Amino acid sequence: MSGKTDQILEDLKSLTLIEVSDLVEKLEKTFNIDASQAGGFIMGASMAASSPAQPAEEAKTEFDVILAEAPPADKKLSVLKVVRTLTGLGLKEAKDLVESAPKPIKEKASKTEADDIKKQIEEAGGKITLK
Prior knowledge:
By secondary structure, the protein is an alpha+beta fold. Helix content is about 55%, strand content about 15%.
C-alpha cells in the first residue's frame, strides 16, 4: 500500500461507530452509491478494526450432575444411600430418582462440588455425567 492509503486505513481504525455511520452517509451522497448493496464492507471493516477482540469463551463454572443410568441391582443400594446423603431426599424420592435415571442429582454445582459428587457416586457403583 502507498503511504496515503496506509494513513487512511489507520484513520479508519480510530473511528467510533457514530463517526463511521456519518462517513458512510457522506460517501453515499458524494459518490451516489448505496453502501448496503456493498455488503456493508466499510461498516464491517471499521467495526472489526475498532472493536477489541472478543475474549475466549469463559471456562464453565457451573455443572449439572446427572445420574446417567440406573445402577445394576447389586450396586443400587449403595448408590441410593449416597444419593440420599447428597440430596437430603427421603427413601422413596431417592429410590424413584435412582430408578428413573438419567436424572439430575444436583444442578448448577461448582466444579469441585460436581467432581466430589461424581467421585462418591462412582465409588458406590453409579455412572455420572457432568453437563
